[in-house]
Design a protein that fits this description.
This protein has 251 residues and is α+β, with helices and mostly antiparallel strands. The protein has eight helices and seven strands, in the order E-E-H-E-E-E-E-E-H-H-H-H-H-H-H. The protein has helices spanning 33-46, 118-127, 147-157, 164-168, 175-187, 195-208, 219-223, 231-245, and strands at 3-9, 18-24, 69-70, 73-74, 96-100, 109-111, 114-115. The protein has a five-stranded mixed sheet. It has a two-stranded antiparallel ribbon with strand order 6-7.
Amino acid sequence: MNLTLKVWRQKNRTASGQVVDYNVRDISPDMSFLEMLDVLNEDLLRKGDDPVAFDHDCREGICGSCNLFINGRAHGPETGTTTCQLHMRKFSDGDTIVIEPWRANSFPVNKDLSVDRSAFDRIIQAGGYVSVNTGGAPDGNEIPIPKDIADRAFEAATCIGCGACVAACKNASAMLFVSAKVSQLALLPQGHVERATRVENMVAQMDIEGFGACTNIGSCAAECPVGISLENIAMLNREFLSAKASSNNLS
């Protein structure tokens, strides 16, 4: 396939960006989208031009770093798919493809298509963990957990932190991401000790990072590549109200 790419180029965080047109030729339909970008960068390097910066790591749909807005959709036109799992067979010869970084104030652009998602890391550091004395922790399999609860916790735990929910939301809300982490730990007995302080601290950090409010449009869940459910946001709201109502969490 021969394609026209309209790629966002931005030198650094403070520079003004612009869309630059590129042509790529002889692209195999069996290539992944990131492999197609590799071909583009090889062509640019041969010409002595600066390659397009973009985030990637595992290329197996696990790490969540391949955050691209493709033709106006997070991760591209295929539902439930990360950018690295998107294959060029989803496009046709002669297509024009617009490629942009995530658009959110809390995800500043580092360069070109690469964005800084460290705000998510700081939210996790605020409470998305379980504190245990590792020397005496019992085996996880020794704690009886009903299968339906374990399944719900596992589904929440599949969040890969890619940020598609933020990019798809008109308010740039991180509620789906935060709710997945809160739900995962609130459902399991290991997470009950810090249950109240966890949700308060994570929501507070989310606000500090400048993410918008949730207005229940549902675009976050629609674009999530791993299918995180809106039910997690409802659970987050319940957890937050419960924490605020307790005598130890009134501040």
